[in-house]
Task: inverse folding
């Protein structure tokens, strides 16, 4: 029952005139225009239900007789509250100072949609694959894998307005866009439970350029070579669960509010992330170029100097007639944006600086708002302000469907040393079986999040009254530098009843410190707390403390499932390794906080490359935890009068260290899973001297429970660790204790903890 | 800084007392003080009821006068298992083995304890270091009225145990307890016989060992601790 109406206003009126012309006076063009109030085309489309059996995207496959890709099957679109889905498209063309501009305004009324997300594979009966002569279909053997069920619903109309000043895809003609995806619900369902993005907003308005480029593909950008614009991630009025009397209840312009839905339709709360305010220097590009999926940028010491190198992993792209794993195409996305802060002089008066939010969600919850976002450095090597913004750059994201047993992954030498492996080229094993595995590969290369919040404060959920006050002068920085990752997904099962889940295989690394190749600025992966009070020089001191320059590596494979209690993640292999510096100091570009002349350096600027120096380092930590485990992420529940303290995020985990093989045990240099504290110093001759204490060869199993609570003024971490969780006296938690000087490790003692439960409750109240 | 806080506290006390104003919430206090750093509270518990039961939100229940009506800083009777094997810390120094190569373990049996501190602060300050150069230090401040509460911290007994093999046969798994001892009785006819006698109830069924430790009390500390990195300049008189 599809009813389509096309209104051509002028024509329609003419028809009317023609029919009633004999009785009515003729009106001139001008009056006509005034009467209808517009020209252009309006297309209105109304539909009560749409069903699509299959919509498949086939990724060009190296094998000519195989079609593989992603598909949405059994898709169904419905209107809400028994109303049809009304979509309207207004199209208008008009003269502008730079040519012919186009105005496109589209809106879609509230709707719900569901579809099965599939990894589709068709081994065709013909080689190469061809459509059957008497059908649209390509015949072959289908082997599809289910990746869960996707759903989207909107409660307010989705609006989109695009107005160009010259043509549609013109790099040099400004386009303004107003995109309002507001208060939508996006869900992913496995079995009977779903993970939900509640009140999902992607709401932005601003000027930019939309163009097609032979290298970049389809590009949406706020800048071209000549000019840069600002885009506002406008906050969206919250329409649900708002406290009585709260007038300004809004959610961030980009709002990712993770909830959980159980079969009994109970809505539980996981966490939320958000961004609002003005962003600039933003670009989204989509193309099919896969040539750089094999490139890993790593920072290594070359002749004692930290140098960025681009290393190419084999297998991905192939050579000559070999098309490699990814084939000739796939999806290549890049997305980046700069966050603005109040010191940005170009920020339009109508827009405010960027704020980010992270925290708990649901009724009675609190979150943390980050503002005054800055990069690690504010000044260049010569001490002048470089005025570059904090930013997020997702790097290059490649999405492919591939068939393979292993993938190569390249790490830097710090991670290589931490892992104690002989080669920086690691093998990500997707299957040990004889037959290669079909997976969706999401490859991320060079993702950066170079943003340190010099100011943070706790904010309340819209279901509570607003927390007034600035919240003090503390901040948090979790910058991420050069994240590379391979995420391989396929259908999986778990449990004794073979419940369906998603099998994952992940390898990821971050780099501690380096000069970013795009910005040319010192960049870091760190977890630091900031104290941004004004110091003796009348400006923010920006003290930082925490772990900086984290070279981290993560590898895991297993299954993710949605259970009634929460999200269940089984890791058949879990390897986490990291090397970091525990440090305290002042962020680069701040003035040493002591009256000039008191000590050396007082009143001068902390150098821009301070994070590459040892001045602030208290000690170095390194660890490798290798084993297997299970994790249950338990969402919070909206509080009730009977149970007021129920809305917090909790974790329940088990971890078992991988027992070393006989050959590994015999190798005294094999440290197994370890944790070490090391001091590094340069001696008179410039030689690096190290001394450390080490806990090597962890054995046994642990059970952990954790609760994270955010209240109006305090963040509480409540953790419980049960050692030897299986209470098997033959397998206590054991470790070797050793000390080292300059690389010579001497074993001191064996330590065994036969069991026991340790609980730590740490409350942090920032001032 | 401390002066500021004190002054502020005095002022707000004065206002509360004389002007009848409402007390300020921590949030408002934060705004007024307007400086960085953080106040921390920490509870660390091992094998006590508080440790094993995550539903407990405090280490004790207090009545209106601040006296504890119920405490959770005692050993969880189930924490150590039936043979009390699972509350042990064992250390085997390198190369301390018997003739058969079995490790000699120094076993702390029945380890337990709860530590709690209601408030301590972490700030950053700039100090002059060994080369008289500005250096940032982490300053940890303890307050006299916020003592470190030590509750039943220690171990039941300490023993040196040697096992007969690996895994469950290692020394740390030994479960010997004091049950009986042998006394000698001289009969009327002068013969001496061995009599197996129960040990007194105080020690009966407790784990074997030679020393126990239990600490209970409040440790009041006032002052601050500055932690900063010590870096060698590479000069001739530097220790490294």
Result:
């Amino acid at each position: 029952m599809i009813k389509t109406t096309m209104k051509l206003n002028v024509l329609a009126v003419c028809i009317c005139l023609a029919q009633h012309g004999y009785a009515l006076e003729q009106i001139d063009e001008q009056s006509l225009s005034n009467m209808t109030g517009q020209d252009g085309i309006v297309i209105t489309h109304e539909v009560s239900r749409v069903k699509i059996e299959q919509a498949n995207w086939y990724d060009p496959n190296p094998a000519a007789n195989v079609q593989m890709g992603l598909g949405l099957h059994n898709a169904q679109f419905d209107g809400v509250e028994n109303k049809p889905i009304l979509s309207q498209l207004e199209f208008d063309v008009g003269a502008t100072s730079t040519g012919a501009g186009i105005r496109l305004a589209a809106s879609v009324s509230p709707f719900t949609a569901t579809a099965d997300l599939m990894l589709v594979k068709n081994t065709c009966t013909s080689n190469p694959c061809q459509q059957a002569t008497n059908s649209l279909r390509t015949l072959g053997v289908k082997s599809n894998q289910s990746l869960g069920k996707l759903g989207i619903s909107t409660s307010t109309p989705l609006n989109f307005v695009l107005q160009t000043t010259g043509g549609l895809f013109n790099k040099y003609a400004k386009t303004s866009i107003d995109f309002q995806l507001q208060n939508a619900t996006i869900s992913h369902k496995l079995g009977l439970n779903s993970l939900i993005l509640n009140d999902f907003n992607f709401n932005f308005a601003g000027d930019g350029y939309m163009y097609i480029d032979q290298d970049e593909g389809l590009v949406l950008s706020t800048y071209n070579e000549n000019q840069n614009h600002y885009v506002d991630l406008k906050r969206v009025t919250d329409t649900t669960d708002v406290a009585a009397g709260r007038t300004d209840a809004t959610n961030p312009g980009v709002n990712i509010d993770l909830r959980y839905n159980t079969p009994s339709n109970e809505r539980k709360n996981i966490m939320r992330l958000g961004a609002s305010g003005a962003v600039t220097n933003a670009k989204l590009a989509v193309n099919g170029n896969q040539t750089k999926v094999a490139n890993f940028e790593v920072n290594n010491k070359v002749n004692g100097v930290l140098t960025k190198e681009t290393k190419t992993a084999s297998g991905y792209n192939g050579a000559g007639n070999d098309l490699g794993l990814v084939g000739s195409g796939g999806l290549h996305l890049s997305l980046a944006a700069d966050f603005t802060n109040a010191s940005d002089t170009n920020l339009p008066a109508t827009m405010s600086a960027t704020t980010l939010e992270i925290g708990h969600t649901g009724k009675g919850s609190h979150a943390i708002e980050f503002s005054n976002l800055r990069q690690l450095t504010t000044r260049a090597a010569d001490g002048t302000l470089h005025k570059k913004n904090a930013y997020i750059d997702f790097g290059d994201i490649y999405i492919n469907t591939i068939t393979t047993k292993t993938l190569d992954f390249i790490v830097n030498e710090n991670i290589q040393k931490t892992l104690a492996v002989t080669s920086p080229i690691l093998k990500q094993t997707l299957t040990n079986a004889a037959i290669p595995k079909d997976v969706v590969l999401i490859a991320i290369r060079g993702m950066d999040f170079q943003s340190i919040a010099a100011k943070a404060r706790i904010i309340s959920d819209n279901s509570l009254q607003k927390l007034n006050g600035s919240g003090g002068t503390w901040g948090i920085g979790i910058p991420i530098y050069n994240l590379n990752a391979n995420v391989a997904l396929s259908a999986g099962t778990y449990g004794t009843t073979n419940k369906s889940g998603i099998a994952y295989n992940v390898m990821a690394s971050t780099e501690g410190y380096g000069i970013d190749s795009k910005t040319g600025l010192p960049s870091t992966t760190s977890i630091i707390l900031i104290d941004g009070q004004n110091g003796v020089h009348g400006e923010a001191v920006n003290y930082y403390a925490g772990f900086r320059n984290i070279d981290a590596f993560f590898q895991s494979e297993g299954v993710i499932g949605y259970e009634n209690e929460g999200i269940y993640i089984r890791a058949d292999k879990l390897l986490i390794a990291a090397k970091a510096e525990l440090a305290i100091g002042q962020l680069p570009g701040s003035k040493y906080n002591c009256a000039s002349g008191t000590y050396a350096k007082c009143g001068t600027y902390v150098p821009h490359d301070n994070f590459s120096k040892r001045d602030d380092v208290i000690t170095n930590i390194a660890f490798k935890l290798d084993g297997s485990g299970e994790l249950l992420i338990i969402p919070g529940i909206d509080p009730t009068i009977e149970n007021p303290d129920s809305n917090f995020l909790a974790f329940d985990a088990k971890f078992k260290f991988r027992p070393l093989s006989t050959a590994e045990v015999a190798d005294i240099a094999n440290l197994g899973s370890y944790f070490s504290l090391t001091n590094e110093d340069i001696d008179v001759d410039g030689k690096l001297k190290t001394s450390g204490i080490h806990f090597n060869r962890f054995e046994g199993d642990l059970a952990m429970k954790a609760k994270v609570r955010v209240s109006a003024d305090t963040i509480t971490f409540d953790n419980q660790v049960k050692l030897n969780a299986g209470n098997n006296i033959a397998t206590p938690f054991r470790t070797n204790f050793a000390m080292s000087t300059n690389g010579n490790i001497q074993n001191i003692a064996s330590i065994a903890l036969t069991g026991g439960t340790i609980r730590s409750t740490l409350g942090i109240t920032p001032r | 800084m401390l002066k500021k806080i004190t002054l502020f506290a005095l002022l707000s006390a004065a206002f509360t007392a004389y002007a009848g104003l409402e007390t300020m919430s921590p949030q408002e206090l934060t705004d007024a003080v307007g400086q960085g750093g953080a106040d921390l509270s920490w509870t660390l518990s091992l094998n006590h009821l508080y440790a094993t039961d995550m539903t407990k939100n405090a280490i004790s229940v207090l009545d209106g006068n601040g006296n504890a009506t119920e405490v959770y800083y005692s050993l969880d009777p189930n924490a150590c298992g039936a043979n009390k094997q699972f509350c042990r810390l064992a250390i085997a120094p390198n190369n301390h083995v018997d003739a058969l190569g079995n490790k000699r373990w120094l076993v702390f049996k029945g380890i337990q304890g709860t530590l709690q501190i209601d408030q301590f602060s972490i700030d950053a300050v700039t100090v002059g270091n060994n080369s008289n150069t500005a250096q940032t230090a982490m300053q940890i401040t303890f307050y006299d009225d916020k003592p470190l509460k030590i509750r039943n911290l220690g171990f039941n007994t300490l023993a040196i145990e040697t096992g007969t093999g690996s895994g469950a046969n290692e020394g740390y798994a030994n479960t010997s307890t004091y049950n009986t001892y042998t006394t000698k009785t001289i009969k009327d006819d002068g013969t001496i016989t061995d009599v197996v006698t129960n040990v007194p109830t105080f020690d009966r069924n407790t784990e074997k060992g030679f020393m126990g430790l239990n600490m209970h009390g409040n440790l009041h500390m006032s002052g601050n601790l500055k932690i900063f990195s010590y870096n060698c300049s590479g000069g001739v008189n530097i220790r490294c």
